[in-house]
Specification:
It is an enzyme of class 5 (isomerase). Its EC number is 5.3.1.6. With 268 residues, the chain is α/β, with parallel strands linked by helices. The chain has helices at residues 6-9, 33-45, 60-75, 88-97, 134-142, 176-186, 228-236; strands spanning 14-15, 53-56, 82-85, 110-115, 119-120, 126-127, 144-152, 167-171, 193-196, 215-220, 241-244, 246-247, 253-258, 261-267. It has two domains: 33-154 and 247-260, Rossmann fold (3-Layer(aba) Sandwich); 167-242, Alpha-Beta Plaits (2-Layer Sandwich), CATH 3.30.70. It is globular.
Length: 268
Amino acid sequence: MAVAYPQFFGTKKVDTSLMVSSSSSVSPVILSQDELKKVAAYKAVEFVESGMVVGLGTGSTAKHAVDKIAELLHSGKLKNIVGIPTSKITHEQAVSLGIPLSDLNKHPIVDLAIDGADEVDPQMNLVKGRGGSLLREKMVEAATKKFIVIVDESKLVNYIGGSGLAMPVEIVPFCWEFTLKRLEMLFIEAGCVGKLRTAGGSGGEEPYVTDNGNYIIDLYFKKDMGDLKDASDAILRLAGVVEHGMFIDMATTVIVAGKLGVSVTNKL
């Protein structure tokens, strides 16, 4: 089974030679979204080799990859793996599974990182952080030689923010309302609306607090925000902003699992 996305990713920046394929006469097996996530995660783990320092992502898709790495370690198919977790919850998962862990202080260069994404655009730019771990994810994945992104096909968008869902920005708690208004003003032409993330979701009252003790402002866009690097620079120039959830030019491989199969796309 195979589904490729050359019409989505284009042909100039990517190599789709690693696509999984088979006869089109075979009837497709309909998988649930979680099963698709597992397919993408397991495909990514095939890139992991013994002796590697591996960034362990956060979220429902990355969780499957961490589980698989632990399984291969215990079976002896992988050896001498060191994991660098991107959140407290991933740290707890890895410890419970017996994966040896370290951090960027001891391993400032990571061989490979595997993580999910909330959005992937045709240039392989990402939105991450709807789970709240964007800062640690970005620190680990910026230090990696190879960053493998694993998603199901529902995460593909025509432009960053195109899902209509949140693009998170981690900010310091001090005067958060002031920072929220400044973020909205940056993208007023894109119809940007910002909301403070709360611990109980939309019905909660207490602010959601990240692993780093910060708040998150979720930005929602009605239109394309424009040049992503300009947008990134503008956000990061605001005092009170810690980091944002746009991962620009960071992914080296995107694995997409769809209802007809899986594709692996490499940035050239």
